Structure formats: structure tokens, C-alpha cells
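tool=predict chain=A
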Amino acid sequence: MSIQKIEHVGIMVSNYDKSVRFYNETVGLDVLNELKIEGGPQLAFLGSKQSGHIYLELVETHDQPFPTEGRIHHVAFTVSDLTSEIQILKEKGVSFLTETPQTLPNGAQYIFFVGPDEERIELFQPKK
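tool=predict ok
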């Protein structure tokens, strides 16, 4: 097997429109494609219009209970200026899990915040 990259992370969501809005307006991801599978889930693929890369697939099913087993620990996004990104998210009312970014032994910094279905989202700034 030869893994090249993460294709995308699938997140089960309880409210499709709310989650699409959150990841688009708050996190800044572009909606690249939306699909409604007949008799199945509604899907949104979010990423970067500029690069064409898909990072997230949001999955909502109306006819099935919201799964507990499908929870992910977190989704991480690389940013170049963690401090300014934190300020932007604070202005949008985002809840952070800690007050300040944490620093790894290698100098990289990160902070977690919470999405609309209590999913953890990490902003990660590699060491400069």
C-alpha cells in the first residue's frame, strides 16, 4: 500500500445546513460539491477552491439515528498565523478548549475549538 495523502475526513452531522454554514463561514472552507444520494445521505465536500483539494465530507442522514460510534477525535488544519486565526474565530463566537495555544517540543503550536456537533477542530501552526 502506498498512502499519498489524506483524501478527506468524513464527519457525521446532525444538521446539514448548520454544519455547512459553520465550516464555510466560520472556518473558511469552500463548498466544492454537494450530493444528495437517493434514499441515502446528503453530502457536502468542503475544501479550497483555489487548490481544488477536498478536506472534509459532511454526511447527514435523516432516516438513521445520529451515530455515536463514528465520532472522530479531531480534524487539524494548518495555518500560517495562529494568533490572527484565533482572533478571527473569537470574533465569530467560537468556543475554544483552552484559553491559549499549546506549544509542542518541536516548536509547533496548536489550539482546539468546537464545531456545531461538538467535534474538535485543531488549528496547527508548524514551527517557523
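Helices lie at 16-26, 82-91. Strands lie at 9-12, 30-36, 42-47, 54-60, 75-78, 102-103, 109-114, 120-125.
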